[in-house]
Amino acid sequence: MSRFVAPLVAGVTYARLLHLLVGWIFAGVVLMIYPGTYRKGLGEILMAAVPVDCVLLAAVALIPAARRAEGVQARLLLVPDREEDIATEPSRTWADRRRTAGWLIGRVVLGSAAGFVLSFGSAACYERLTGPDALWYLPLSPLPVLGFGWFLVLVGRLQLAMAVRLLGPSPVERLAEAELRAERLLERNRLARELHDSIGHALTVTVLQAGAAREVGDPAFVAKALEVIEETGRLAMEDLERTLVLLRETPPGSGGAATEQPGIDQLPALLDTARAAGSPVEARIEVPPGALPGVLSRESYRIVQEGVTNALKYAPGEPIDIRIAVRDGRLELRCANRLSGGGRSAAGAGRPSVTGAPRGGTRKGGKGLRGIRERATLLGGEAEAGAVGTTVGASGAPGVPAALGALGAFQGGGGEWVLSVRLPLRLGS
User: Fold this and answer.
1) What's the CA gap between 35 and 33, in Å, rounded?
2) Spacing of C-alpha 419 from chain mean position
3) pTM to 2 decimals?
């Protein structure tokens, strides 16, 4: 019973009634001005007034702002389940204007029909309830009330459906909205990767330096560790500031140097922090100056940063070997480090804890490697990571997958963890 009565007392029903009455009032005003009602029958009035109404409404629909005004009003009074089902953008095409004209005419027709039904129906009911046979009709008086109430509910729902159909976003607007949502999602993911890579690297270096300084106790070593921690923290703060500038949606150029992202030319400073953390780093970067597009240079920096961070976190003190080269229209990047202990994977399977490693050395989630794969995919490339059991130092050598050994394998006995990324130069911009 409550489900039957609830729509009759809901505020949305009467908001939609107000929307109906606005259309009815417009038709009434036109009717009173032209052709008038004096000594004219209903059919004669409608035959003269309807064409005038349609012409006026079609002319209003030609104004681009009319669609926006009708959309805002429909959102407020018709109360759709989702506001985005009714557009609030001005007309941009003739199709938008035709749909707006159809909505305006349909709105006035529906409002006029509802107004006539309510006015004539109410007059008929009043006549019965005040006539000589009123006592016979009085017990039935709740029925017209319920009937009129549900008539308003259904007409309001019909009007909402018509608004969604005629004032809803056009295919072009839906596509633009979908593209905007995709861009926002990609931007959020990109910012999340930036924070993960830069802050994660800084914290890893800081923890390793602080732990080593505490264990060694040599004043000179402690001073050097504090210097590295200070420099790493400063770089992390710069990365954080760049990310915050992007979050504030600062126009390009207004942030100055704060908005400039690090590129491949800044890798030496990154590798110096790894060496200062106690891990020998051998790097061979065979990339001519200016050969990489900006986005490819920036993403390469982040990929190497994540690879170095993984090495420092899961195999501190072990040598790190980095190879970057441009070959056959592709940027090939390889980052390898010896496995510590049992040589388990750093991509979620975890490595055994070693001296100086962060507590709980098992990596959880693999967000860094997942971020690298996302970067590579967005640039049209591919990324692989995994443990290699034997390393004899040549592409195609035993134990080294061809995809991982294209730039040569890290020399030395025992297994190693290898990150290999290939990115096409033509997709950078």
Assistant:
1) 6
2) 29
3) 0.49
Report pLDDT digits (tens) over 307-329: 888 888 888 888 999 999 998 88
Non-local CB neighbours of 319 within 8 Å, separated by 6+ positions: 279, 280, 281, 282, 337, 338, 410, 412
Predicted confidence (pLDDT) per residue in 80-122, tens digit: 988 889 999 999 999 999 999 999 999 999 998 888 888 888 8
| Contact assessment for residue 399 and residue 391, using Cβ atoms and an 8 Å cutoff | yes
End-to-end CA distance of the chain: 64
Q: Is the peptide bond before 35 cis (omega within 30 degrees of 0)?
A: yes
Q: Please choose, from the candidates 318, 301, 311, the residue with its C-alpha nearest in 3D space to the C-alpha of residue 235.
A: 301
The per-residue DSSP string of 48-66 comes to HHHHHHHHHHHHHHTSHHH
Which of 305, 274, 277, 354 has the alpha carbon at shortest distance from 200?
305
**DSSP structure class, residue 365:** S
- Express each pLDDT in 374-397 by its tens digit: 888 888 889 998 888 643 333 333
Pair 100, 66: CB distance under 8 Å = yes
